[in-house]
Amino acid sequence: MDQLKQIHAQTITIGLARFTYITSKLLAFSAMSDIDYAHTILNQTNTPTIFDYNSLILGYSKTSKQEMGILLYTQMRNNRIEPNARTFPVLIKTCDCISSLLQVHGHVVKLGNVFDVYVTSSLIYMYSNLKAVELAIQVFEESSYKNVVCCTSLITGCFNNGLVDEACKVFDEMPERNDVSYSAMISGLVRNELFNKAFELFLHLKQSGLVKPNRPLLLTILTACGKIGALDKGKNIHHQLLEESFTFDLEIDTALLDFYAKCGDIEKAEDIFIKMRYKDVATWSSMIMGLATNGRNESAIKLFEEMTHKGPVPTDITFIAVLVACNHKSLVTQAWCLIGKMFKVFGIQPGIEHYGCMVDIFARSGQLKGAEILINLMPMEPDEAIWGSFLHGCLTHSEICLGERAGKRLIELDPSHSGRYVGLANMYADIGRWENVIRLRNMMVERKVDNTPSWSFIEVDGVVHKFFVHDQFHPRVNDLCEILQILNKLSMNQ
DNA sequence: ATAGGGTTAG
C-alpha cells in the first residue's frame, strides 16, 4: 500500500494524473486493500467516471461499510453519471436489507439495458442471503438465460433457507457443472446434515474425474468428517491436501486441528496447534473447544487464560468453548463471571448458547432455582437444549415438582412440539410413573403431534450407521447391546 | 487502454 501511495504521488508530480485512466487504475487497485484511501482518490478527482464509481462500490462491498454503496450510487446519479451493467452486481452486493435490494432491483428493471446474467446471479445470491428465497427463485425462473453461476447461486440460496429438495432439483437439472457448483452442492448437503449424500456425491465426483475437487470442497469434506467422527475418511482428505500441494495456511490448518480434535485425536490437534506460525481467533477457539470436549478441561481453561494475555481477542464462540470446559468441571461461579466479563469487557451480548451452557451448569450442580430464574430472565425464547438441561437437572436432583411444572407449562406453550412431551415423558419414565408416560403418549396421538425420533450415527469403514432410540434394525444389534452392557458395567465400577 | 456474479476453517 505504501508503494501504491508513492506511485500516486509521482503521477501527480509528473502530471500523469490528468490521464484519467491512470488515476482510475490506482483507485481500483487501492479499493481492494485500503478503501478509505481509494475514496480520497475519488474525492480528489475532478471528473470521476463510471469506472471510478464501480471500483469504489466494489471495494465497499467487501468491507463492513456496506451502506456506502447506495450512498455512492446516489452521489453518482446526482453527478449525472449513468450506471451501466457493471454497476449493479457490485451495488446489489452492498444491499443490507430487503427494501434497499428491492429498490436497486427496481432501478435495474427501469433502466432495462443493464439487466444481464451477472445481474441475475447477483440478485439470486442477495435475495436468498436476505432470507427472501422465494424472490430468488422468482428471478431465476423469469430469467431466460441461466448459466452455471445462476444455478449455483440458487443452489446455495435454497440450501441456506432449508429448501433441500429444491436445491437438489436445480443441481440435477443444470446443463453444465463445474468445480464450484459441485462444491456448493456438497457443502449445502453438509450444512443440512445430509452427510451420506454429501460423501456419495464426493465419491462420484472423484471416480468420474469430471472436475477436480478444489480447496473449498476439500475443506468442506474435512469439516463434515469432523462432524460425524469419520477419522479415516478425514485422514484421506489430509493426504489429498498434501498431494494437491495447497499451501498450508490458516484455514486449512485450523480445519485439520478441529477435525482431529473432534475425532478424539487431541494429541494430533495439539501438535498442529503448536506448529502453526499464524493463529487467529478461530484457531484458538477450536483448540479450546477441542480440549474441553476431550475432557481436558483444566488445559482448556488455561489456554483461554493464555489467549486473553497474548492471543487474539476472543469472540462469542471462544466463550462457548471455555464455558463447556467450566460445565464439565461444575465451575458455577467461574462460568457466571466469564459471561459477565464477556459482556462488560468484550462487549459481546450473550447468545442462546451461552445461556444454554449456564442453565446446564446450574441444573447439573443442583441449583434448579438459579436455572429457572435465568430461563425466565433470558431475552430469547429458550430452546429444546435449555429445557432438556433443566428437566434433566430436575430429575437427577429429585426436583420432580419443579420439573413437572416446567414440562407442563412447555406443552401448553407449544402443543405441536414433540420434544416438549418427550422431555416430560422421559422424566416420568425415569421415576417409574408409567401411567403418566402412557397419558402423555396418548395425548400426542390425539393431538397428532409429529414425532420424528432423534438419531445418532457413527462412521465405520466409510459407512455411516444411523441409530434411533430403541432401534432394533441394525444387523448386529445383539452384539452392540452386549458391548453396551459391558461398557455400562465398567462405568458403574469406576 | 481502466470496472462485475456462484463454493472455503472455529
Question: How are the SSEs placed, and which strands pair?
Answer:
Elements: H1 2-13, H2 20-30, H3 35-44, H4 50-61, H5 68-78, H6 87-93, H7 98-111, H8 117-129, H9 133-142, H10 148-160, H11 164-173, H12 179-191, H13 195-208, H14 215-228, H15 231-243, H16 250-262, H17 266-275, H18 281-293, H19 297-310, H20 316-328, H21 332-344, H22 352-364, H23 368-377, H24 384-396, H25 400-413, H26 418-430, H27 434-446, E1 455-460, E2 463-468, H28 477-493
Antiparallel strand pairs: 1-2
The protein binds one DNA strand of 10 nucleotides through α2, α4, α6, α8 and α10.
Label this structure with key terms:
494 residues, mainly alpha, single chain, 2 strands, 2% strand
Overall description:
This protein has 494 residues and is mostly helical. The protein has helices spanning 2-13, 20-30, 35-44, 50-61, 68-78, 87-93, 98-111, 117-129, 133-142, 148-160, 164-173, 179-191, 195-208, 215-228, 231-243, 250-262, 266-275, 281-293, 297-310, 316-328, 332-344, 352-364, 368-377, 384-396, 400-413, 418-430, 434-446, 477-493; strands at 455-460, 463-468. Strands 1-2 form a two-stranded antiparallel sheet. Strand 1 (455-460) and strand 2 (463-468) form a beta hairpin. The longest helix is centred in the C-terminal third of the chain and has 17 residues, at 477-493. The chain is globular. The mean pLDDT is 91. The structure holds one DNA strand of 10 nucleotides.
